[in-house]
Amino acid sequence: QNSSCLKFVLCLLALSISSICLKHCCPRLAFRSLVRKYNCDICFTPMIVAADFLRSIKARDSEFTTNERDRPLIVQFAAHDAQSLADAACAVAPFSDGVDLNCGCPQRWAMSAGYGACLINKPELVKDMVRHVRNQVDNPNYTASIKIRIHKDLRQTVDLCQKAESAGVSWITVHGRTTEERHQPVHYDAIKTIKDSVSVPVIANGDIKYLRDVESTHELTGVDGVMAARGLLANPAMFAGYEDTPLQCIWDWVDISVEQGTPFTCFHHHLIYMLERVSSQPERKVFNSLSSTSAVIDYLQNTYGSVHDLRT
């Protein structure tokens, strides 16, 4: 690990494992527990709509679960008014280390509701939202950060970041693409420009698939940390330097899932991602058809061996 570059996980944010898995049974805490075993420094929750979180006990129970080992933890909110964000921050502050305002989600539903990436065009509102959190959370060490995308005119992005900095933002995570871009190359030069324009820490995000991507991104941009999401789905041990998911990590996921009661659909889907790069197409076809936890465990033991085999 490069001591000057923290490794973050944006845990299952805007990832399409499956609509059923994400909406009803996504093992947020379980997956954070796994990546923390493999050199992830800070974990984020998925994006939570602040207004719904405040309005509904059911939403709070389903969207936010943690335990005493789940730290440091940043709770990411979608919001479009300062007071809702501040109220949500106050609600989770006793159980977390900071909140992050999502200004980067490009999904149509989010932007049409005034959330996500549309906020990069409202720098005064973002400034006000950061300031409200800073002023209302009764903990001077509690962080208030933002995650953004970039503008085509980078001067607008720099202005946004400098306004957020003036309001007391703790750090800024930059996904190095515009709102319209999806799979185009990451604009590392833009991330570097933003890093050079503010004094608060800047975190880079986008196309982090291997540990070498963490190192090259740090070298190209000078950022203070690197955030990954999709890369960690394929290999939760990426930050520990593994090229592909090691067998130990797979069995760690089994143990954590059984211990925390992770629903089968999500337990299985995560393993599909983890095994994709290390299994053949016929093996994947068989594995994808399995329909119970016991069948999955039997398959893993018969195909890859057990943790005991690793130690003999």
UniProtKB/TrEMBL annotation:
Task: Write down the SUPFAM superfamilies for this protein, in alphabetical order.
Answer: FMN-linked oxidoreductases
What transmembrane ranges does the database entry give?
Answer: none
Organism per entry: Haplochromis burtoni
Q: What does this protein do?
A: Catalyzes the synthesis of dihydrouridine, a modified base found in the D-loop of most tRNAs.
What's the protein called, per UniProt?
Answer: tRNA-dihydrouridine synthase
Q: Which residues hold FMN?
A: Q76, H175, A229, R230
Q: What class of enzyme is it?
A: oxidoreductase
The organism's taxonomic lineage, starting at the top: Eukaryota, Metazoa, Chordata, Craniata, Vertebrata
Q: What does the record give as cofactor?
A: FMN
**GO terms of molecular function:** flavin adenine dinucleotide binding; tRNA-dihydrouridine20a synthase activity; tRNA-dihydrouridine20b synthase activity
Q: Which family does it belong to?
A: Belongs to the dus family. Belongs to the Dus family. Dus4 subfamily.
The DUS-like FMN-binding domain sits at 29-282
- Record keyword Cytoplasm present: no
Q: Which reaction does it catalyse?
A: 5,6-dihydrouridine(20b) in tRNA + NADP(+) = uridine(20b) in tRNA + NADPH + H(+); 5,6-dihydrouridine(20b) in tRNA + NAD(+) = uridine(20b) in tRNA + NADH + H(+); 5,6-dihydrouridine(20a) in tRNA + NAD(+) = uridine(20a) in tRNA + NADH + H(+); 5,6-dihydrouridine(20a) in tRNA + NADP(+) = uridine(20a) in tRNA + NADPH + H(+)
